[in-house]
């Protein structure tokens, strides 16, 4: 037992050291030491003995789940979330909870309770969000595996900013019971919990562990679909769609280069490509609604520019108005709600039909990055176009780090014009400036319920990039 306790204290020491630099944790779960007395009963678990960090909005018995909102303090949860119960059943040891933005309404990572989390590669940059505490902790070497949540890119953006891997499963593949939402009942753009780690194999192992009979028993609303290892380990050539820009937010030079370089590596490996033009873009902006009773983080104080942001968005993508109305809770009647849900369902089917007409298995596309300077995330809410789209579509999507920002990338950024050469493109250029040495990532996407194929694609990208650097 003494040896076991010493081994368990090591991740605590690592985490505390990283947290001192990055401010990425909200609390250490000291009861994880007590778990050592019972973890032996789960020796057959796929995650036996693995310390796991967990985002603060995922409930733990007897702990607050504040979501960075002051009025949510002193309301301890009555039981563990389903995901935490399954992690423990699989032998994992949840040992720390991690930071997030106030009310999960930003892709920065700051709130009035726990403060600002910074980037592990440059403390003058944000870690991203809303799973920014996880991104920073794992990217800084303080955790091997973490659980985040994603409703607009909240796993994928911090994975991109912090140089790790992150995976958003198909909506509904993992249980949501015990995840504290800010708005219950919002169905148009569903949240998805998912793993974050330093490599794709760890993501796949976590998914395999979570997709077990114990989760299906605890939450019968989750489809009982175990992880298909055969698909994940498959080596057949893939038919890959390719998207370098969505025509709305042009990627930074480094992120565009990352996509091009990965495309070349995949082609050399025998995979085939089809240029995938984005169909009618129809995504949703961040929720701009704050609960009363506490301070508002300055990162979120941007209502004065929201109407300008939406005006540009609607001019470019008029079909987006309906979906945004649903997402922003401004519907006035039940029939209107049904109409908006039907519009989302139609768009999903149109996109799937487009994929099939292109005869593609998966999609390679950019993700937001490199990491922003502080206070720009709230000003650039529409820059989540590359990530929030796949929440709306419910497609599984993941991020793999493939490179770093070079001096040449920074030089090219000086000439960045964007898609419209307007104030938003100018803000984006300012946000990503000074990024030399920061991680560069790409995004991998698959059709609904093809999570294993998406992870297999991510693994292929990871391996090819690793081999190219030898």
TrEMBL record:
Belongs to the amidase family. InterPro entries: Amidase_CS, Amidase_dom, AS_sf, Endocannabinoid_amidase. Keywords: Hydrolase, Lipid degradation, Lipid metabolism, Phosphoprotein. Residues 15-274, 338-455 form the Amidase domain. The keyword Translocase does not apply. Pfam families: Amidase (PF01425). GO terms for biological process: fatty acid catabolic process. GO terms for molecular function: amidase activity; fatty acid amide hydrolase activity. It is an enzyme of class 3 (hydrolase). Its EC number is 3.5.1.99. SUPFAM superfamilies: Amidase signature (AS) enzymes (SSF75304). This is Fatty-acid amide hydrolase 1. It comes from Astatotilapia calliptera. PROSITE patterns: AMIDASES. It catalyses: N-(5Z,8Z,11Z,14Z-eicosatetraenoyl)-L-serine + H2O = (5Z,8Z,11Z,14Z)-eicosatetraenoate + L-serine; (11Z,14Z)-eicosadienamide + H2O = (11Z,14Z)-eicosadienoate + NH4(+); (15Z)-tetracosenamide + H2O = (15Z)-tetracosenoate + NH4(+); tetradecamide + H2O = tetradecanoate + NH4(+).
């Amino acid at each position: 037992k003494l040896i076991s306790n010493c081994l368990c204290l090591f991740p605590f020491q690592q985490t505390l050291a990283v947290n001192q630099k990055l401010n990425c944790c909200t609390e250490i779960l000291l009861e994880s030491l007590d778990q050592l007395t019972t973890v032996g009963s789960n020796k057959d678990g796929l995650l036996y003995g693995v310390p796991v960090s967990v985002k603060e909005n995922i409930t733990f018995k007897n702990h607050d789940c504040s979501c960075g909102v002051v009025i949510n303090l002193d309301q301890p949860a009555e039981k563990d979330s389903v995901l935490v119960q399954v992690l423990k059943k699989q032998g994992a040891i949840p040992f720390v909870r991690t930071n997030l933005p106030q009310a999960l309404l930003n892709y920065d990572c700051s709130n009035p309770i726990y403060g600002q989390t910074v980037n592990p590669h440059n403390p003058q940059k944000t870690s991203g969000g809303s799973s920014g505490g996880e991104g920073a902790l794992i990217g800084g070497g303080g955790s091997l595996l973490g659980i985040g949540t994603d409703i607009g890119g909240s796993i994928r953006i911090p994975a991109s900013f912090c140089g790790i891997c992150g995976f958003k499963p198909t909506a509904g593949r993992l249980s949501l019971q015990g995840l504290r939402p800010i708005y219950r009942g919002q169905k148009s753009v569903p949240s998805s919990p998912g793993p974050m780690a330093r490599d794709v194999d760890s993501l796949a192992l976590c998914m395999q562990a979570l997709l077990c009979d114990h989760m299906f028993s605890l939450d019968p609303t989750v489809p009982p679909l175990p992880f298909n290892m055969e698909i994940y380990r498959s080596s057949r050539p893939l038919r890959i769609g390719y998207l370098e820009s969505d025509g709305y937010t042009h990627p930074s030079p480094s992120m565009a280069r990352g996509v091009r370089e990965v495309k070349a590596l995949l082609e050399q490996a025998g995979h085939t490509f089809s240029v995938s033009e984005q169909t009618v873009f129809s995504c949703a902006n961040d929720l701009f609604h704050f609960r009363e009773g506490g301070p508002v983080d300055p990162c979120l104080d941007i209502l004065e520019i929201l109407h300008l942001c939406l005006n540009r968005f609607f001019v470019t993508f008029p079909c987006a108005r309906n979906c945004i109305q649903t997402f922003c809770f401004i519907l006035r009647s039940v029939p209107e709600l049904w109409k908006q849900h039907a519009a989302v369902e139609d768009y999903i089917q149109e996109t799937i039909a487009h994929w099939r007409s292109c005869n593609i298995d998966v999609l390679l596309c950019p993700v937001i990055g490199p990491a922003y300077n502080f206070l720009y995330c709230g000003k650039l809410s529409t820059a989540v176009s590359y990530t929030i789209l796949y929440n709306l579509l419910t497609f599984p999507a993941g991020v793999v780090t493939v490179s770093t920002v070079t001096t040449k990338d920074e030089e090219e950024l000086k000439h960045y014009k964007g898609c419209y050469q307007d104030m938003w493109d100018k803000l984006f250029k300012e946000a990503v400036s000074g990024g030399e040495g920061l991680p560069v990532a790409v995004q991998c996407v698959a059709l609904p319920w093809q999570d294993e194929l998406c992870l297999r694609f991510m693994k292929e990208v990871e391996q090819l990039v690793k081999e190219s650097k030898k």
